[in-house]
């Protein structure tokens, strides 16, 4: 929190009180009249100390930097409904223009399949917002039984990978399929399909873990952030093993600045970690050059398709982190990306789908197409 935005209220005196009420005002980020928040006294003093430390640190962000982060956090949220007819008409024009640039993968299905005829399709799927809906509690982002069945059918017909920012253990627990590749922690933890032996034990094949040395550091930062974000209602810290996520979906927008500053203040002491942003989530990752695009290339190489002209990689995702994979496919000039979004946004994808239900429909049609082409051979 920057000093110009936080004013200690005279509702509660600082000395001799267990809690402190502050008003947040004097900034375009906050509403008028001032909004009041009550913090435990000890936690509030820690926040002030952290802010002072940042102000004195050569890498401190300053109000402008925090403001830009809040703007970025706001941009990652779904577009708000607008009331005026003029705004509505403008939105419709923008969406129409966007759909022309990134047409529906369902409407363009036949064209896509004609380009893939006689070639090997390899499927890459994001999880949150793609196979499962975005939900308030990320621990409850369950995949439907219908979606699980269609992903299983896809995996029986094409090499298939789920590429996610989540840990492999958590996504595997959601998906419950052994026939696919899992690339967790934004591709920093990659495992191949697993097979159970006669004793019911799983033979898991770890293919690649380029950030293994960062695990102790990630675990330490998780504990620090869990403590620092206790005073921010709705904030949730998720340990994804090789990276971590700070979810702000349930955080009041008026205190996003406080959350952003808390997260950034921790990273001052960890220069080997970097902060990126996803869909209502701040993500902390090792500074190594590795992302979902690199994971896509690695998996293609592992499958023996690195230099093949007869392969069509298809990547479906909804988040900013999926743009790295879309960009790889665009630069290759091979395969295509599909962005899952109901609102127009800049993307390196080639096509679009609106939500997981349309992803489900696309995958069903893909399996039917495969079965039909096999029957015709």
Automatic annotation (TrEMBL):
UniProt-annotated stretches for the region Disordered: 72-94
The keyword Signal is annotated on this UniProt entry: no
EC number: 3.1.3.12
Cofactor(s) listed: a divalent metal cation
Catalytic activities: alpha,alpha-trehalose 6-phosphate + H2O = alpha,alpha-trehalose + phosphate
One Pfam family hit: Trehalose_PPase
Entry-linked CDD domains: HAD_TPP
The entry's keywords: Hydrolase, Stress response
Compositional bias per record (Basic and acidic residues), positions renumbered to this chain: 84-94
A biological process from GO: trehalose biosynthetic process
Listed pathway(s): Glycan biosynthesis; trehalose biosynthesis
Magnesium in keyword set: no
InterPro entries according to UniProt: HAD-like_sf, HAD-SF_hydro_IIB, HAD_sf, OTSB-like, Trehalose_PPase
Family assignment from sequence similarity: Belongs to the trehalose phosphatase family.
Function: Removes the phosphate from trehalose 6-phosphate to produce free trehalose. Trehalose accumulation in plant may improve abiotic stress tolerance.
UniProt-recorded name of the protein: Trehalose 6-phosphate phosphatase
Organism per entry: Brassica campestris
